[in-house]
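Fold these two proteins, one after the other.
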Amino acid sequence: MSKKIAVLPGDGIGPEITEQCVRVLESLRPEGLALDFEIAAVGGAAYDEAKDPLPQATLSLCEAADAILFGSVGGPQYDSLPRPMRPEQGLLRLRKHFDLFANLRPATVFPELAHASTLKPEIVAGLDLLILRELTSDIYFGQPRGIHRNAQGLREGFDTMRYNEAEISRIAHVGFQTALKRKRRLCSVDKANVLETTQLWRDVVSEIARDYPDVELSHMYVDNAAMQLVRQPKQFDVIVTGNMFGDILSDEASMLTGSIGMLPSASLNDKQFGLYEPIHGSAPDIAGKGLANPLASILSAAMMLRYSLDEAAFADRLEAAVRKVLAGGCRTADIEEPGCKRLGTAAMAEAVIAALHEASSR
């Protein structure tokens, strides 16, 4: 039975990379991967069409889908909009509406790209860590929030960092269960020495650890974690942390791999319904030029096949094809090196398709 995928290309380079990602997935249709794709607007593109970054038609499409394939949102032309109408609100509302509380962000260094990291190759070679970010609570969603004038007449901005133990508990369970499938090490990142919210985080994670005696739990303050990621990143296996800290640390981890254009992500609810997106932004400076790296989008699609669609074999093949094209010297501009074969967005997708079918024809 065919699965329905809601494709939300968004803004900037989003339409280019999602178009190529869909091409790659459609190339597997003759081999039995039955997916139907339907496109809808989100973010700035949706605001331009409907004055809403998440129109009801887009939300309805997502509700009827088996998974969401997302591009990117945002652009400088939208920065002056009222905050509820900004492109990023479309993504935040999707996360909240579907309760996509578990954000999985792997940071893997492909052997061919170890030199592309800003760190020494021996520091990052073989790196394979996963950052698990809680996605629907914390300071991004806490109330009250706003900007007002205080008693002295000065403008004052305020946001509320807020977690309850149920929200912490469910992401902690995902962290421990994920660690069980990997190297059985879980590092919980907080700022418990300063913030009451994250003291509760540490307390709840420690309580849940008793249910997972086979997982080694450690705790680390977020400032130290940021330092350790560039000092000795291979000490980590799975990192679990809150929304804001996870946002920052996962972007830092992306640069260990050589390019933010290589990192996929999955945002899941407790029913394994998910939104899949590369973690890079909309990159408006290169939008429409055919330069964007589609590999993070393609790797996000592999995560979609694995986590939401129960198609692990096809996921493995997609990931193997990406490794093959990198090993063959294919590069987009963001991971370019001397002597490599530089490709644009469409040509890189074609190389992945060729690698997929070369493997299947053996």
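Now the second one:
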Amino acid sequence: MDQVLSDEKPGRGTVLTEKQLSRYADVLLWGLQTARTRKAAKNDLVLVRFDLQAVRLAEILYAKLLKTGAHPLLRLNPTASIEHDYYTMANDKQLVYIPPGEEALFAGLNGSISIYAPESLTHLGKIDPKRIGKAAVAKNKLRNMLDKREAQGKFSWTLCIFPTAELAKHARITQKSYSAQIVRACFLNKTSPVIEWQRIYKEAQLIKQWLNRMPIAYLQVESENVDLQISLGESRKWVGISGRNIPSFEIFVSPDWRGIRGTYYADQPSYRSGNYVKGVRLKFEKGRLTNIGAVNGQNFVRQQLRMDGGAGRLGEFSLTDKRFSRINTFMANTL
């Protein structure tokens, strides 16, 4: 007989309960559909990427996708060991190699759901950032294909974060507390979290319409460490809270990078590609970076912002309404 898992018991390998995992899957499906400009159809091809520690959520999501009539395709992300070996041992040809079938897959993909559940945040800390950047740039062709399909209404995506011991350790809280933050932020403690997301989505639409009606020439951000002017430019639109990130409460705009000037400072640390970065300070003049500094990870930050011609230009400015956001502690992840 198949094992029956209680709704109130923790899901396999996680501190989230089966009921919470099921609700999380429902929210992800809502996000995927909401992010789509055209209605999803039966026989849609949906890629689900997940880390090993999130396998139970992937299983639940797989079953729910089958019920919608979609064709779910599961793909396990590389483990920390595999990823480390790849960036350590791969030669230049292997770093930029695109496996057969990838372009065909992306050309027909209708949806993508990513579940981020890292077993390590620092395993790539000693890898040359140029190698990581080279592999990322090689995949631009695939990303561009999805961007085009998304603009045509044929593709949408969403992603979420899954509570792991590694994330909790670097956030300096317990895994139970980390999970509680996600449960509260995603409304997994509600009978129908999707209803809550629909409410926030509608309220955000009104805020975006209000912002888009305002004749804003530029925004000025000032604090003890920040003095930054953001020029919006013509025909810029505020977007966000679209289902593409779970949870996400940002309303953002793509400014005219040429009009960015002043100093930006990050008062919270960040982890990226295995690197711990803290105290980032950037100075802009006429949209271009003239000074890059960091208390920790300065070399990594400089290499990332010089990866290509656009890496050092401001591509997004966001606002978060404190009435929406429910995260109240450092989470060791920008999402």
